[in-house]
Amino acid sequence: MAIAAESARPHHTLWGDAFVRLRRNRLAVVGAVLIISLALASIIVPLISPYEFDEQNLNAVLEGPSHAHLLGTDGLGRDVFTRLFYGARTSLAVGIFVQLIVLAIGLPIGALAGYAGGRVDNLLMRFVDIVYAFPDLLLIILIRAILGGSIYMIFLAIGLVAWVNVARLVRGQILTLKQRDFATAARAMGGSGPYITVRHLLPNSLGPIIVLITFGIPRAIFAEAALSYIGIGVKPPTPSWGTMIYNGYQNIFGAPYLVVFPAIAVGILMLAFTFLGDGLRDALDPRERR
Amino acid sequence: MSTLLEVRDLSTHFHTQDGVVKAVEHASYEVDRGEVIALVGESGCGKTVSALSIVRLIQDPPGKIVSGQVNFNGTDLLKLPRQAIRKVRGSQIAMIFQEPMTSLNPVLTIRRQMTEALEIHRGMKSQEALDEAIRLLERVGITEAERRVKDYPHKFSGGMRQRVMMAMAISCQPQLIIADEPTTAVDVTIQAQLLEMLHNITKDLDTAIILITHNLGIVARYARRVYVMYAGRIVETGSAEDVYHDPRHPYTVGLIASVPRLDEPRTARLVPIEGQPPDLIAPPLGCPFHPRCSRVQNQCKEGAYELIEVAPGHYTSCRIAGKD
Amino acid sequence: MLKYSLNRLFWIVLVLIAVAFITFSLMHLVPGGPWDREKELAPQVIENLNKKYGLDKPYFVQFGSYMWNVLQGDLGVSYSYQDRGVTEILLDGLPKTATLGGVAFLIAILIGVPLGMAAALKQNSIIDYIAVFFSTLFASIPGFVLGIFLVLIFSVSLHLLPTGGWGTIDHVIMPAFALAALPAAYIARVTRASMLDVLRQDYIRTARAKGLAEYVVLVRHTLRNALIPVMTVIGPELAFLITGSVVIESVFSIPGTGRLFVQGIAQRDYGLIMGTTLFYAFIIAVANYVVDVLYGVVDPRIRYD
Q1: In chain C, which residues have their Cβ closer than 8 Å to the Cβ of B177?
Q2: Assessment of whether the complete model's pTM goes beyond 0.90
Q3: For residue A157, what is the enclosing H or E element?
Q4: Whether residue A204 has pLDDT greater than 80
Q5: CB contact under 8 A, A148 and C31
Q6: Looking at the domain B3-92+176-190+205-322, which fold is it?
Q7: Element of type H or E holding C241
Q8: Where in chain B is the domain with CATH 3.40.50.300?
Q9: Is a pLDDT exceeding 80 seen at residue A24?
C-alpha cells in the first residue's frame, strides 16, 4: 500500500489514485505544506532564535514587535516568537499523539464489536454510548484533574474521550464489509475471524478512518488549547498556544498582539488540517474513482 | 392515423470534464395517436436521453438539447416557456421510469404522490383526488387499495411500486406515455403481468406509448413500429415485422441474432456482436458502427448520416444494406 | 412510534445512571480531598466535616443516597459555597447559559440551513463558493479563538461592545456568534451536501416529470428528505453548544453554569463538579432524545411499526 510515485498515466491502485487526486486539490496541498512547514519550523527554532522559550527578561516586559523581538515579549519578558514556535511543538504533538491513542483504543474495540457481533458488540457499544453521553470537554477536564498536568497525561486525557468516534466508525465499516463477497470468500478459504478482520476488513476501511483521524487532529489541538485557556492545560513552563492566549488575555487592551499571534496560529493550524482532511476525504471517496 | 408526436433531428449533448458527450445525434421518430412504438438499443445508446429530451427533463448543466424539434400536437415543445412545458408533463405526456425502488419519494405517502398530479392537472379537491387515487390503484391491480394508499413506498415491493408508477402515469389520462424500461428491474414473472396490464389500460384510453427497452421479446409482442438506436442515432426503423424478419442494418442483424431461440438446436452457439460500444465523446467517423461491422467498407468510414428507405416504411442508415 | 420513543427513553435513563456512577468514581480519584485549602485544616475538623457531609460512609452508600437525592431534584451540596446547594447554584447560572445556548442554536440554524440550501441550489456559483469557503473557515477555528478576535475587533478597536459580563443584548451578541460559528458552518456543509444528494435522486425526476412547479418540488419533495441527515447532525451540535459554552463563558466572563464548572474543578468542589456534570449530561441526553424522536417523525422509514 505504498503511495505510488508520480507518473503520466492515471493510477489504478486506490492509494496511487488517491494521491494523484489529492495533489490536484490545491487547498489540501496548501494545508499539507503549512503543516509541514510549521513542523519543520518548530524543530529548528532553537537554531533560528537566540532566546529560550522560558528565558525571562524583566527589563523588556510587554514590548511590541520589534527588531530584537520579532513578535514582541510577554508579561515576563519572554520572546513571543520563540514561544510561539515551541508552542507549535506542543500542538502538533497533541494532535498526533492523541490520535495514536485514539487508534490504539478505538480501532480494536470497534473491530471487535463489528466482527464479533451479538452480545460482545452490544456490550461494547453500550460502553461507547455511555462515554459518548458525557459532555466531552467536561470528561476531559475531569480526567485531567485526576491525571495531572504533564503533557503526556493531557494526551491521555483527551485520547480517553476521543476514541469513541473512531470505534463507532470502525465498527460500522466492519459491519458493512463483513457482508461483502470478498469477506465470505476469505471465510470459505478457511480464514478465521481475527485473521479476516486484520488482513481483509481493516485495510479496506482505512479510507474513512484516515479521514476521521485527520479531522480529529484539530479537535485534539482545540481541546488542549481550551484546557490551557481555562487554566488547566499543560503545566508551565511548557509553552502552549492556549496558555499563551490565557496569559495574554489579561493584557488584551494594552498588548493585543500577545493574544493575536497564538490565536492566529491555532486557527491556521486547524484550518490546514481541515483542508487536508477535506482533500483526503474527496481523494479517497470510491465514488469519484475513474 | 394522425401524428401525435414528431421528434425531428433531435440532438442532445452533455458537457463533462472529459469532453462533450453526444448522447443523441439527429434522432427522428414519430408516434401516432394510440400507437405503441419501441425504442430499442443497448445501454447507453441514447434512448433514455432522447425520451427525457421530449419533456425537457435534461439537467442543464451539464446537458443541453442542441438542435431539433419535438412537435406534439403541432406545437414544438422545445420552444415552450417553462410554465407551459410543466402543464404538458404529467397531464399530456406521462413517464414511467425504470427503477421502482428509487423513483418514489420515501417520505411521502402514496396518496400524496398520486393526488398531487390529480390536484394540479385535473383540478380535483382533496377527497375527490383520494377517491380517484384509490380507484387507480385498484385498476393497476393493487389489492386493499383503500388501506394501502396511506402507506409509504418502503412498504411496497418492486413490482407493486411499478404498478403505482403506472397508476400515476395514467392518472391524468395522458395522450402519450413514455415507458423507460418499465419492467427491467422487476422479477421476470411480474414483467409479463405489468406489460399486459399497461397494454390493456392504454388501449382503453387510446394512449400512445413509447416503449424504451433492450428486450426484443417485449418489442415483438407490443410494438407496432420499432426504432433501433446505436450511438445516439436511429440506425433502423420500420414496422415490427419488417425489422424482425428483414433486418437491414448490421447492428440490428447482430441484435436479433444474439437472442437465443428455442427453435434452434441446443448446440448452436450464441452469436455476440464483436467489439465495444463507441466512445460518445469522440465517436467513429462516418457510421458509428463501422469498427464492429462485419460488412464494413471504405465508404462507411466517412460521410454524413442519412436514413435510406429500403422498403415502404422501412428505413436504415446503412448505405450498403440500403443498396441491396 | 411509541415503542421507539419508550425504548430510547429507557436507554437514556440507564446511560445517565452510568454517567453518574462514573463521574462519582472519577471524582474520588482526583488527588487531594475536598477540604484542601491554602491553610491546612486540623484533622479533627476534617473528620467532622466528613461526617457532616456523609463522606465517611461506604462508597456505594454515598452513591446510593446521592442518586436518591438527585431523583428528587437535589443535586447535593457544594463544598465551597457552604450556604447553598448545588441545585441552587446551578439554577442561578442556568438562565444565562440557556440564553446563550439558545441564541447560538438559533443563529446556527438560521444561518446554516439557508446558506447550505442556497449553495446547493446555485451550485458552482459565487454563492456556492463563498458558502463553502466560509463554512470551511468557521468550521476550523475554535470558538474561543473566534471570540477573542471578536473582542479584539469590536471591543478593543471599535469600542462597540463590552468585553464580557452579562445583562444586556450587547453582552450576548459576541459570545453567541462565537459559539454558533462552528455549528453554523457544519450545518451549512451538511445541508448543502444533503440537498445536492437529494436533488440527484430519481424521485425528484419523477416529481418533475409529473409537471409539478419547481417550488413544490423543492419544498415538498426535496426539503424533507434533505433535512433528515441534517437532523442527525443537530443533536451532536447541540451537545457541542452546551459544552462549548464552558469555554466561551470563560472568555466573556459570563456567570453561567460553565464557568461554575471550571471554578468547581479549580476548587475541588466535588459536589459542584458532580452536579454540573450530571446536569450537562442530562441536558445533552434530553436534546439527543428530542432529536431522535423528531427524526422518527420526519423519516417514516425508521419507525418501528
Answers
A1: none
A2: no
A3: helix A151-178
A4: no
A5: yes
A6: Rossmann fold (3.40.50)
A7: helix C224-251
A8: 3-92+176-190+205-322
A9: no
Asked if the Cβ–Cβ distance from C225 to B165 is below 8 Å, we say no
Phi, psi for B5 (deg, rounded to 5): -130, 135
Strand-strand pairing, B208-213 and B36-40: parallel
User: A187: number of CA atoms within 13 Å, CB side?
Assistant: 12
The confidence band for A87, taking pLDDT boundaries of 50, 70 and 90, is: confident
A242: nearest Cα among B47, C117, C143: C143
Residues of chain C below pLDDT 70 = 1, 4, 30-41, 46, 48-57, 77, 79-83, 268, 270, 302-305
Q: Which residue has the higher pLDDT, A58 or B225?
A: B225
Q: Yes or no: say if A269 and A85 are a contact pair by the CB < 8 Å rule.
A: no
* CA–CA gap between residue C209 and residue B207 (Å, rounded): 17
One-letter amino acid of C21 = F
Q: Long-range contacts: B197-204, Cβ < 8 Å, 24+?
A: B197/B140, B197/B141, B197/B163, B197/B166, B198/B96, B198/B166, B199/B36, B201/B139, B201/B140, B201/B166, B201/B170, B202/B36, B202/B170, B202/B177, B203/B34
Span B243-275, pLDDT tens digits: 888 888 888 888 888 777 777 777 777 777 878
Dihedral sign from CA coordinates of B172, B179, B15, A19: positive
Q: Which residues of C touch A278 (CB under 8 A)?
A: 136
Contact criterion met (CB < 8 Å) for B57 and C221: no
- Within 8 A by CB and 6+ apart from A176, the residues are none
- Output DSSP code: residue A144: H
Is the separation of the CB atoms in A138 and A220 below 8 Å? Answer: no
| Residues in chain A closer than 8 A to C152 (CB atoms) | 252, 256, 259-260
Of C113, C100, C98, which Cα lies nearest the Cα of C231?
C113
Fold entry, domain A24-53+71-283: MetI-like fold (1.10.3720)
Residues constituting chain B: 324
Residue found by looking up cell 490504539 in the block: A104
Interface test with C, best of B83, B98, B105 (most C CBs within 10 A): B105
Q: Residue B103 and residue C205: Cβ atoms within 8 Å?
A: yes
| Cell of residue A58, nine digits | 524583566
For the packed helices A151-178 and A136-147, what is the interaxial angle rounded to 10 degrees?
A: 130
* CB within 8 Å of A181: residues ≥ 6 apart: none
CB A173 within 8 A of CB A208: yes
B105 close to C (CB below 8 A): yes
pLDDT at A11: 44
CB proximity list for B45: less than 8 A, separation 6 or greater: B229, B230, B231, B232, B277
